[in-house]
Structure formats: C-alpha cells, structure tokens
Design a protein that fits this description.
5-stranded parallel β-sheet; 3 domains; globular; FAD/NAD(P)-binding domain; 24% helix; alpha/beta
C-alpha cells in the first residue's frame, strides 16, 4: 500500500524538502503532497532592497510550481488545522489529508495587530514594514518623496525572521540618504528590546561600532507597548517614549494561526522541536523545519538549507525504522549589507558565536568574516541566482550543514577571558 508524506508550506524549507524526498523515494511507494495557500514564491531576502530601489517586485517573485519536482501532488489551500494524534491535516474547505509522515514548514509571519495602535491610520502611510512585499513596496513609494525627519526602526520582540535584516536596513538607509545628499536631514535610530545591536556579543560589538561610525542612534531594552498615531510616537511598557516621522517596524513574528488551532505550538505558535533531530517533541512522525520551529537558531534561509540536509537524513532513517542520528548544530550564516557596495558575513551555530576569519576556505576566503568587504557584498547579491537555480531545487551545495571552525579565530580580548 502506498504511503504518504505531507509537507505543509511551500516556501524555502518546504520546497527544498519536496525536492530532496522526491529524488530519494519511489513514486510507486510514496506519494508526496505539498500544501500552500498561494501560488507565488517570494525571495524574501530581496524585500530588504525594494525600499531603496535596488530591487523591484519582479526580482523577488516567481511561480512556486516552477520549483516543484515532478510526481508530487500540489494543493493550493489554507490549512485549517492539524490533528497529529490521528495523522490528519484538515484544509480550509474541510477536506482531510491522511499522512504517514508530516513535515511542517509553515514559516512565520508578521503580526502588527499584536501591538496596540500599530495597524491604524498611519499604517503604510508613516508606519511601514519591509518583511512583506506589500510593505516594502509601500515604503519604496514613500521614500521617493520623503524630505527627512526622524526615522525610527523598532523591533517589537524576538525572535524575528532574519535577525540581521533590521541592521542591514539601517545601513542601507544611511547609504541611501547620503547618495541623495540629505543624510543631515535624517535622524536614524534603532529601538530594540535587546541590550545591544545584536544577540551575539562579539558581533554586537562590531555592528555597534558600525552604527556609531554611521551616526545611527540606538535605544536598548525598549519593549514596545503601543503606538500613539496622533502624536507619532512609540511607547514602551514602562512608558518610555520615542518620537518618529517615519516608523519602520519589525512587528511580533508568529507561526501561522493553524498551529494555534491545532494546539501544537507555544505562545507564539512555534512548534516545540528537538533542536538536533528536527523531530517534533510531541509526535514521532511529525518533523518541523525552518521558521516554524521553536529552535534557538536564527530564523533565516541559510538555516532552513542546513536543516534540510539533516532532516532529509533523519526522515530516511525514520522511514527505514532506524534511529535518528543526523544532528543539527544550529548552523547559520548571513551576509550583512553595510552600504556603499560592501558587506559583512557572519557564520555561527548553537555553541559558537560569530567570529572573525575567512570563509569558506581557511586563509583564502574569498569571504571575510566580521569584516566589511566588497566581496561580501557581491556574495549577498549573487545569492539570489544561487537561491533560484540551486538552493530551493534541493541541489547539493559545496557547504557542509555543520559549522566548521576552520579559518576562524577568537579575538585576543575574548581569548583572554576564555
């Protein structure tokens, strides 16, 4: 009797897994069904460039079906809920899908409605996000004619998708306004719930120095409680206030509502997942990948790619009735646009924070870690081609899923404290 794998979500992680599993499993033995609510695939790292006119809409969208393997079933539908105790997925139209194994790759979405006053009269007028195509496009239109003032970028709470993107936005904004000869007319401030510019100490220090050099202010440990639309200010839970003329928000990130209806997630609708095997903590035949997990790794495309290699191995083991031995170490790497045609690169995992050095080849690079270079910028811009043509098609890339210490070193001031 034919067995069935159901994949929920056809973004980066779900599409990679569909391609990997279809190559490995005979169509006559295993059916693979992928479910997503829309036909369009978004290259989400590209949203960052849209407000500044570097990319347009057509640079970041393609049909999802262009990247699916043959011999899989594609269902375009909202998911109502999962019933993991009976191995079923219910769709919005009440259809039910049975499964032997389930892969949850439903990602995360911004929820501005979680913040009082955020999505009111100033939404997409003086308050914008750039984590959605609509938000990025609206912000691009706004910036074309904006004459300056107080630009505030606020991170509502962690975790967020692509933790370095807010900093990249600030660096690109600084560069954008300099090129328009109006940098002196724009006061740029990062308002964050963290106690520094980034979550990892060495990287936070480096990135904090960058912000200081670029004249970008930072307000730390600010937990937003509400937006005052009339006064144009954000107010923290402890009643601290920051005024704005333009507010760029990274609202609360949450898993999709179907996870809440399924009673499978935490308070943010992320599914508790074994941080090494990627098996859900509650059900042996349910695996979770990418932004849908509650893992302490970054919610970023590179992480989904590295996780996919591990998840594929563990699913093949599970199908064969063998122990799950592949081990995800939290590996993430991210190019960070710094403006002026340059960028940085960070590479880290659960145990090791971003360190300086060369990547991926020790002594050679060609990329420099935690150092601003032209080559890192070219790597960031070249990644779009790699993404469309190789990564989401599940093809093997010359990057190991596990982080390597080769080429990295601990700075002297840090080594003395180790």
């Amino acid at each position: 009797m034919m067995k069935r794998i159901v994949i929920l979500g056809a973004g980066t992680a779900g599409t990679i897994m569909a391609n990997k599993l279809r190559k490995a499993l005979k169509p006559g033995d295993w059916s693979i069904t992928i479910v997503d609510k829309e036909e369009t695939h978004y290259y989400q790292p590209g949203f960052l460039f849209i407000p500044f006119g570097i990319y347009g809409k057509q640079d970041v969208i393609k049909p999802k079906r262009q990247f699916f393997p043959k011999n899989i079933e594609v269902i375009i539908s909202e998911i109502d809920r999962i019933a993991p105790d009976v191995n079923k997925v219910y769709l919005q139209n009440a259809d039910a899908l049975d499964y032997d194994f389930l892969v949850v790759a439903t990602g995360t979405e911004i929820c501005p409605e979680e913040i009082e006053g955020m999505k009111e009269e100033l939404w997409h007028k003086s308050i914008f996000d750039f984590y959605t195509l609509e938000g990025a496009m609206a912000l691009a239109d706004f910036l074309k004619t904006w004459e300056g003032g107080k630009l505030v970028l606020n991170i509502a709470e962690m975790p967020i998708k692509c933790p370095v993107a807010p900093l990249e936005f600030l660096f690109l904004a600084d560069d954008f306004f300099r090129k328009k000869n109006m940098r002196d007319k724009v006061d740029i401030t990062l308002v964050t719930p963290l106690d520094a510019a980034f979550t990892k100490p060495i990287a936070a220090r480096e990135l904090g120095d960058f912000m200081e050099k670029k004249g970008i202010n930072i307000v730390t440990e600010f937990n937003i409680g509400r937006v005052e639309n009339e006064e144009k200010k954000i107010v923290s839970w402890d009643e601290r206030e920051v005024e704005f003329d333009l507010l760029v928000t990274i609202p609360t990130n949450m898993g999709i509502k179907a996870i809440e209806r399924s009673e499978m997630g935490d308070e943010l609708n992320f599914i508790p997942t074994d941080k090494h095997t990627l098996q859900s903590n509650g059900w042996e035949n349910v695996f979770v990948i990418g932004d849908a997990t509650d893992l302490p790794s970054s919610k970023a495309g590179s992480v989904a790619h590295f996780q996919a290699d591990i998840l594929f191995e563990n699913m093949m083991s599970a199908i064969a009735g063998k122990p799950l031995e592949a081990n995800f170490d939290g590996h993430a790497n991210c190019f960070i646009e710094s403006g002026g045609g340059k960028g940085l690169l960070i590479d880290f995992n659960y145990e090791t924070e971003p360190l300086p050095g060369k990547f991926p080849f020790p002594g050679i690079g060609p990329f420099a870690l935690l150092k601003e270079t032209r080559m890192n910028h070219l790597g960031k811009m070249g990644f779009r081609w790699l993404y469309w043509n190789m990564l989401i098609k599940g093809r093997d890339l010359p990057l190991e899923p596990h982080m390597s210490m080769a080429g990295k070193y601990i700075p002297e001031e840090e080594a003395e404290t180790v």
